[in-house]
User: Which sequence fits this backbone?
């Protein structure tokens, strides 16, 4: 087993009163940027919740660096090293102001208020959120909230990133900035998205989740061209653009 690795081993899970979602599911993230697609309700978000200990599998386990995540200490260790961007930014943000939300993590880890503030301002600048520090979080637009939520994660310098639909509510310029930011991050990450072009621009492999099974799409089907081709067994299109 790769020592620096996030791993799901033989995970089985069903939501209460729901049919079985996963049976003996295996997954490993140790390097690179990996995409995850799948229909609405296929279980993508549930998969990330299982990794983060927000749902408990009925069988199997989550491992980080060969350590089974079982106790509260294990979970604290995992959450220290794995950054998780929620699908809905409102699930991530809880402080009155942007700077309080972003500085919360560093303060919690023992940084002084000055250091935590400086780290937070740096990351806000990097995300193009200059001047947002004193804004009221609940008044932000959907896209702004998404970026602030990302800031609360990146400020912690996680070793792994799990991003659940990061482009939701982003306009095309912000989306392009996010592509550049992800490109500059040398961290293994799993990105859930319905946006094939975004995955093509940010990841080198894409899994699809279908009836509880993960299938690796052919890597050669991914392109970084400004226009689209059919993507292996997941053809996609763009209105107004010819396919070749
Ligand atoms: N807390 C819950 N209790 C019961 N059922 C749930 C719960 N959370 C999710 N589900 C169900 O589990 C299935 C998987 O949901 P999940 O949110 O993981 O899908 P998803 O692939 O992320 O979908 P989307 O693309 O719409 O975000 C769905 O059928 C959903 O209705
Ligand atoms: Mg989801």
Assistant:
């Amino acid at each position: 087993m790769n020592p620096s690795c996030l791993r799901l081993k033989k995970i089985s899970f069903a939501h209460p009163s729901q049919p079985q979602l996963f049976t003996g599911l295996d997954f490993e993230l140790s390097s690179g940027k990996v995409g995850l697609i799948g229909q609405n309700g296929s279980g993508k978000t549930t998969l990330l919740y299982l990794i983060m200990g927000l749902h408990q599998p009925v069988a199997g386990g989550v491992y980080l660096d060969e350590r089974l995540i079982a106790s509260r200490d294990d979970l604290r260790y995992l959450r220290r090293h794995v950054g998780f961007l929620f699908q809905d930014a409102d699930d991530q943000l809880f402080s009155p102001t942007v700077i309080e939300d972003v500085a919360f993590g560093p303060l919690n880890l023992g940084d002084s208020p000055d250091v935590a503030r400086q780290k937070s301002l740096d990351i806000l600048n990097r995300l193009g959120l200059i001047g947002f520090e004193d804004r009221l979080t609940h008044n932000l637009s959907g896209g702004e909230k998404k970026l602030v939520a990302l800031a609360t994660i990146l400020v912690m310098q996680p070793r792994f990133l799990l991003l659940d639909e990061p482009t939701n509510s982003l306009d095309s310029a912000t989306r392009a900035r996010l592509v550049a930011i992800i490109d500059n991050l040398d961290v293994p990450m799993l990105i859930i998205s319905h946006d094939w072009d975004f995955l093509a621009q940010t990841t080198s492999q894409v899994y699809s989740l279908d009836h509880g099974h993960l299938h690796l799409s052919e890597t050669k089907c991914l392109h970084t061209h400004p226009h689209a081709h059919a993507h292996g067994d997941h053809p996609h299109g763009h209105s107004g653009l010819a396919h070749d």
Q: What stands out?
A: The first strand starts at residue 6 and ends at 14. The longest helix spans residues 113-126. The chain has seven helices and ten strands. The CA atoms of residues 176 and 198 lie 9 Å apart.
